[in-house]
Amino acid sequence: MHAVLTYGPGDMRYEEIETPKPGPGEVLVKVARVGMGINDPTIAEGHWPTRSDRPTVAGHEFAGVAVALGKGAERHHGIASGDRVLAEQVAFCRACFYCRRGWYHLCERPQLFGLNLDGGWADYMIFPENSIVHRLPAEISDGAAIALESTSCGIYTVERGGLRMGETVVVLGGGFLGLIMVQVCTIMGAGLVVYCEDDDHRLQVGSSLGAHVTLSLRRDDVVAEVRRLTGGLGCDLVVDHGQTEAIELGSRMLRKRGRFVVGAAYASTNAPKIEFGAICNQNELTFIGRTMSGGADAACFARAIEYVRRGAIKLDPVVTHNLPLADFQRALDISRRRIEHAIKVSMTP
Length: 349
What we know:
Blueprint: E1 2-8, E2 11-16, E3 27-35, H1 40-44, E4 56-57, E5 62-69, H2 73-77, E6 84-87, E7 90-91, H3 97-100, E8 111-112, E9 124-127, E10 133-135, H4 142-145, H5 148-160, E11 168-172, H6 175-187, E12 192-197, H7 200-208, E13 213-216, H8 222-229, E14 235-243, H9 245-251, E15 254-266, H10 276-282, E16 286-289, H11 300-309, E17 319-324, H12 328-337, E18 344-348
Parallel strand pairs: 11-12, 11-14, 12-13, 14-15, 15-16, 17-18
Antiparallel strand pairs: 1-2, 1-4, 3-5, 3-9, 3-18, 5-6, 6-10, 7-8
């Protein structure tokens, strides 16, 4: 079979390798479609640690068909040969403090597809025994399925913020994930959804997907506009998945006792100094972290599948490109540079 292997920083190769065989509890999956995750370009550049003992098959967003099941896998995962399936990003140890409480996304010894566990940028892949496997309903296409991982992360981000019906929420950038969060905020009953982006095409898409107000991070004084929209008070919640600068920017939009969910904080040398003493102590702001799609209690992945199945969350407008897996370098370039209004890029093995 063919696969994209990560050898090291800036060294990814499309090569022919041996097709894996499933062991006990494992599932061999024929990959139908894979996604370009938000972290994949930075993984390719070497900003995330991958295995050092051998090259790793890239990719943590994928969907396919179960074609062979190891001993006990059918009962363990609740699937059968021929089922359309996908797995969550983390395969967990099941033994640490966090796993025993159902918070497997915080596992102390996680295996992560595309990092220390072979991922899905290949013709075939293995779902290990400790992975979290979901069956795909017929209503969800392969193209939409590869975006379910990000969709579940978007649901978890908004829920971590404790969004209440009628509140004003600002979705601050985030690209593809930001467009998911716009839809989630609408589903959860936000009174006003403000979507801020630096890309005009994405602003148009955000408006079509339910944002009540769109603001350009390049042209608009977004802090002043949010204050104006809320009668000078500020918004109740900011959800973000972008640069560190967003923390300082978003904190100035919040009302006193407002909440800020930090879905990512990619460092930048241009990031302003954040005076946490002033913004936290004087205004009693709450900053909340979020990693991946939550644990068993959140059940965000299963809910993402259901939302997309019944059309409450629309993925077709945001999965904009599909290329052959052999053209993965071009897919990386399109994703990085937003060529042809790219939002979410997928590939077919």
